[in-house]
Amino acid sequence: MQIESASLSFKNPSHWRRTRWLLLVILAILPRLAHAQGGPPFLTDDPETPGNQHWEINYGFIGDRNPGQGAYQVPDFDLNYGLGDRIQLKYELPIAIAETRTSTPTPATIAPPNSIATGLGESLLGVKWRFYEHHPHDPYLHNRFGTGLSKVFGHPSEERAPAGGEEPRVDFSLGTYPQLSLNNPTHSVARGVVDPGPNFFLPIEVNSRLGPLRMDAEVGYNFGNRNLQQGWSRGLLVGHEFSDSTEAYLELHDDQDATRLDGQPKQRETTLGLGGRQTLNRRKTLVLLLMGGRSFQTITTQNSQPSWVAYVGLQMLLGPHDHQP
């Protein structure tokens, strides 16, 4: 998403006073950091959502390069809003760069050989729903399914609070995260910056705890279109939360074409990465996001196995304070 930035005019006292009050209001509503596993900076996502009326804003620089091509988002703007306890609304838009270093263009590389093209990326719309969650010592079926929308309408939470009023700890959850990629009314497709849309992605996501380890798994299908291959996307995250400020994960992620396009061979991208998050302030509302990795398979100019993938960014968490009993 393109953000129009307005410079502050310090020569105008009334403008500065309004700006100062706006900053104070924003700081007043900053929430506590919610535990996060999948999602930025990782390729694999999870069933976790920001929480009712909470915002999660990710601002990142992303790269994916192999001997023949490179794809970069500089930056990628990812806006997420919690609708109730279990639903997340998403809008994502990058400024994209497509680098081509192949001798012959292919359907996946519309841009001419040895070129760099820049433009507006695809708009990505998504709705995440964590339809099942289980707390330790609770029954596995009774009152475990839900939408979490009760808080939206001012009703008490659907979740049973443990004794003492502490936040319920979820040890297993399931969710889905349908997402639709749409081309914007620019020349990005014609110039080879982005793939031709639309494309619908439908995943199932799992989150669980096993002793000190946190694990996420995601399996989804890209439905493609007549100009874009269909394909599977799979991911696994395993890691540990060292504190409420520091977490690190190892990620295995695999994208594989399920169909061919114009007789071209199916492509596959399998990466092994290491990444994590580190909060940067006392309120735990500003988080550093880092991830790096590469393919552990043979990398050639004929396949799409990446020489490296990377994510560097910041996450901002905004929303009302949780009310303590």
Oligomer status: single chain
Q: What portion of residues belong to β-strands?
A: 35-45%
Instruction: Tell me the distance between the termini.
Output: 39 Å
The number of helical segments is 1
Q: What share of the residues lie within helices?
A: under 10%
**Top CATH class:** Mainly Beta
CATH architecture: Beta Barrel
**Spans of 5+ residues with little confidence (pLDDT < 50)?**
1-16, 22-35
CATH topology: Porin
- Name the shape in a single word: globular
Strand-pairing-aware structural class: mainly beta
* Average residue-wise pLDDT: 84
Which SSEs are present, and which pair or pack?
Elements: H1 13-28, E1 55-65, E2 69-83, E3 87-100, E4 115-120, E5 123-134, E6 172-176, E7 179-182, E8 199-210, E9 213-222, E10 231-241, E11 246-257, E12 268-279, E13 286-294, E14 308-318
Antiparallel strand pairs: 1-2, 1-14, 2-3, 3-4, 3-5, 5-6, 5-7, 6-8, 7-8, 8-9, 9-10, 10-11, 11-12, 12-13, 13-14
Structure, described:
- The chain has 325 residues and is mainly β.
- The chain has one domain (37-318): Porin.
- It is 5% helix and 44% strand.
- The chain is built from one helix and 14 strands, in the order H-E-E-E-E-E-E-E-E-E-E-E-E-E-E.
- It has one helix at 13-28, and strands at residues 55-65, 69-83, 87-100, 115-120, 123-134, 172-176, 179-182, 199-210, 213-222, 231-241, 246-257, 268-279, 286-294, 308-318.
- The longest helix has 16 residues, at 13-28.
- Mean pLDDT is 84; it is low at 1-16 and 22-35.
